[in-house]
Design brief:
It holds the Pfam family Inos-1-P_synth. The chain has helices at 22-35, 45-48, 64-67, 88-95, 107-112, 140-157, 179-182, 185-193, 202-212, 229-237, 251-265, 281-286, 289-300, 302-307, 313-316, 361-381, 410-424, and strands spanning 12-18, 50-53, 60-63, 76-82, 116-117, 160-167, 217-219, 241-244, 268-278, 320-327, 336-344, 350-358, 386-387. By secondary structure, it is α/β, with parallel strands linked by helices. The chain binds nicotinamide-adenine-dinucleotide (NAD).
């Protein structure tokens, strides 16, 4: 490994998940099983991918930890908050994502991971009944202080050098950005102190607390949270990296590959209808229209920036794009996502493509959570702060610097990710063909 300015990944890294539901418990159980040599980290770039560094005769393919200092999974300490008291074993069993034989070998370790009480506001997740919560009457400011204390205590009790906080809790109701509150740290803090509950969501309390504690914050759901100027300014001021939002797992990952293929081949698109059936708790929450609205906004944005209707009006100016999620309990976490894409070719002749992705939501999300947490920590050690656009690869609705267009094409995003790692590893960024 070259000498770089990245601080070495020494000591323990705490990964604190907000929400200990299907995604987090699948992630945590997987990490513990992999540590024991009883599972493989399939889907994880940090654990499996090899990236080319150097060009021509100097080219070499190296794993990420050979390019930059990365923590071993043995040095990771796992923790969580939830508004339900189930420990990680109970949560894993209830989620029914993993088979018993992939949970029981780490039962004792899982049972020790009990959630800290969550910041709960029933108005933000109407389908759930939180029973393991911090005082719901406390102001947003006070709750943020309590989350900061939780982080400090977790760090101290577990001997962690660094902590990353990842939101993998339920999707909150849609709240639009309000420039009078969300556009500066001062107005944002004033709203927290005034307990302005309609503008300050529970997720914002966790994000603000994490940043204040110097912990990178990753937003895995589509909530309005860190995608506001107040958070960007705060993260820059505190020198903390942030990334979001919404894990790019099944349908949207496919979308950002297919849309890029159509644009590359100059094939037109008339319509894109995406629907899903999903029966887990996430599906239950998303069945509430105000919560679905948050997801819909996140899912709808992706194809426009790839197809660029303004640049190619003959091909993409009039696309009918619709996304639906239907709660259907028999399928539990085994989501089925259908896409019907109406495309057209030479002389405008129509064609159709049907995609039927029988996926497992949490199986796809768990490696993303791991990579985002480890890369969030890498960004911190590399002295990066604010929005980490190089992590857009993992996100459905990536944040971008004001005035810039987000990159949604999965392969362009991968190039950006690889170049960031090359640079942090002391190599030159490039666009050679791999
Ligand atoms: N699995 C995927 O493919 C995928 C992709 C993108 C985004 N997501 C998002 O990830 C999130 C987690 O998904 P999941 O399937 O694990 O859902 P889940 O319902 O199984 O788990 C969410 C957990 O969050 C808890 N929670 C809710 N509000 C909380 C709060 N304020 N503080 C602490 N805990 C709280 C709930 O009690 C629950 O245990 C959802 O928002 C989902 O939309 C998932």
């Amino acid at each position: 490994m070259k000498n770089t300015n990245v601080k070495p990944a020494e000591g323990k890294l705490g990964i604190l998940c907000v929400g200990l539901g299907a995604v987090s418990s699948t992630f945590i159980t997987g990490v513990l099983m992999i540590r024991k040599g009883l599972g493989k980290p399939v889907g994880s770039i940090t654990q499996l991918a090899k990236i080319r560094v150097g060009k021509g005769d100097d080219a070499a393919y190296k794993s990420i930890s050979e390019i930059v200092s990365m923590p071993s999974l043995d040095d990771v300490v796992l923790g969580a908050w939830d508004i339900i008291p189930d420990n990680a074993f109970e949560s894993s069993m209830k989620a029914e994502v993993l088979r018993d034989r992939d949970i029981y070998p780490v039962k004792e370790e899982l049972e020790k991971i009990t959630p800290m009480k969550g910041v709960y506001d029933p108005d933000y997740v109407k389908a759930l009944d939180g029973t393991w919560t911090k005082d719901t009457k406390a102001t947003r400011w006070e709750l943020t202080r309590q989350v900061r204390e939780d982080i400090q205590r977790f760090k101290q009790e577990n001997g962690c050098d660094r902590v990353v906080v990842v939101w993998a809790a339920s999707t909150e109701i849609y709240i639009p950005r309000d420039s009078e509150v969300h556009d500066s740290i001062e107005t944002f803090e004033a709203a927290m102190k005034a307990d302005d509950r309609s503008h300050i969501s529970p997720s914002m309390c966790y994000a603000y607390a994490a940043i204040a504690e110097g912990a990178p914050f990753i937003m895995g759901a589509p909530n309005t949270c860190i995608d506001i100027p107040a958070m960007w300014q705060f993260a820059e001021k505190e020198n903390v990296p942030i990334a979001g939002k919404d894990f790019k797992t099944g349908q949207t990952m496919m979308k950002t590959v297919l849309a890029a293929a159509f644009r590359t081949r100059m094939l037109g698109v008339n319509g894109w209808f995406s629907t899903n059936i999903l029966g887990n708790r996430d599906g239950l929450v998303l069945d509430v229209p105000e919560n679905f609205k948050t997801k819909e906004v996140s899912k709808l944005g992706v194809i426009d920036t790839i197809l660029k209707g303004d640049e190619y009006p003959d091909l993409y100016s009039d696309i009918f794009h619709k996304v639906r999620i239907n709660y259907y309990p028999p399928r539990n976490d085994d989501k089925e996502g259908w896409d019907n894409i109406d495309i057209f070719g030479w002389m405008g002749y129509p064609m159709q493509i049907k995609v039927d992705f029988l996926c497992r939501d949490s199986i796809l999300a768990a490696p993303l959570l791991l990579d985002l947490a480890l890369f969030g920590d890498l960004a911190l050690r590399a002295g990066k702060s604010g929005i980490q656009t190089w992590l857009s690869f993992y996100l459905k609705s990536p944040m971008h610097d004001d005035g810039h267009c987000p990159v949604n094409d999965l392969f362009q995003q991968y190039t950006i990710l690889k170049n960031a790692i090359r640079e942090m590893g002391g190599y030159e960024a490039d666009e050679e063909i791999d």
